Amino acid sequence: MRIGIQGFDKIKSGVEPVPAGTYDVICEGGEEKTNKEGTAKYINWTFSILNEEFIGKKLFDMTSLKETALWKLKGLLNALEAPQDDDGFATEDAVGLKCKVVVQVESYEGREQNKITNHLPL
To answer: Is the Cβ–Cβ distance between 91 and 32 less than 8 Å?
Structure first.
């Protein structure tokens, strides 16, 4: 069955990255995952942009749970002002919290995508 959509040939496939810059975001959640090799864990974070021009556009970041990389996770939690203590934190406590993110555009497997390079307090 053919489905007709006016101007379908002009629609771009895939997700278009936002321009490099600093954006206000709200955390939508973080999910703990294991890498493909099964050797390391990380948290896959989802953020939604609050700036008017790109409001609602999604950005993603990963923070490793390896001891040598916990500085990045700590920086994100501090920027969000998320509750944390000597025993750790709960990803649910970061949901709805806001911060700023510094975003770059990089090429990955032949397509441009966003990369969060820093987290800053709002």
So the answer is: yes
